[in-house]
Design goal:
Blueprint: H1 2-9, H2 13-34, H3 43-62, H4 68-92, H5 99-128, H6 132-147, H7 168-187, H8 191-197, H9 202-215, H10 218-226, H11 232-252, H12 256-284, H13 289-338, H14 340-345
Amino acid sequence: MVNAYVRTYRLTNEIAGFLIAIEFLGIMLAGLYFSPRIVRISVRKLAIFGMLVAALANISILFWHGALEGLFILRLVAGIGAGCGLCASNAALSALKKPIFGAGLMGALTIILGTLIFVFEQALAGIAGPTVIFLIAAAIAAVGLLSAPALPVVRRNIPVAHLSLTSGPSAALLASYGLSFAATYALWPFAVRLGTSNGIALSDVNLALGVSAIASLIGPALAAALGERKDHRRLLLLAMATTGAATVGMMMAESFYAFMLAAVFLNIAIAFSAIEFLDLLARLDRSGRLASSSSVINAFGNAAGPAIGSVAMGLGGYAALGVVSIVGLALAMAAMLFAQTVVDDVLPDTLFD
């Protein structure tokens, strides 16, 4: 979307980046408001409302030629709509007997859709102009609107949740989720520049990252294949350790194959972690509050990660960027260890009778 903002509205890269941040702010605001209240709201109605708002906001941008402030408002509204949809769909996972399969399907579809947009966006922009990305976003929201009535219904007469949103273990789990993704998103926007700074040709770097994006489908598939297990903590710790090792590998890679291999492992580990976290949160709290709150954490990681990475790059270049990523992952692992007794002991097979 940055390219569309720059070319259509003649904005600077900084302002375009701020518009992206505004949208993530909208997602976070929707999650902060609706997550604690999800037990009193129909997830289907919330999804319908959110997708309708997102679709209308994205379509409105196609015809907006007014003040910049109006563009900010439209992106914020689009973010709020997307946030409502994410809250609803994530909460609906708690209604499934085996959330891991629903989370895996969501993850796989997200990766496939993101890859298709990455591959065909430039071609479509050449035909229909740079604003085609907003039309694509509106179309995706329209598909979500049509599929919302099929979302599983979260039961309202469930027992008291094993974890509340304000409990120490809940905070530790959500912190682990947020830190792990913020650490990764701090590095990822600079992946192309990192590869070329190591002497790898730009075409090879782009190819390596494209291959890694496709390979990330292994993450959801692997999570679904492993199914519901009681050793979530160990799997997540292993995935975070793999992410850290892959980060170091990308920092040190001086050849195309080494860079591609590190990027592949990084993307697989991230995708795997996302599904495992969603499944874990859905199973720990069948009211849907924990799972729906993950939309806030994901938006935070998307917004804060690149900002932190930019600061690190300004202070100490790629070395500082690598340190920030590794420290973030280490803190994420520490937070997971803090919550280990809950993850290991509060997941009986009778959570959903």
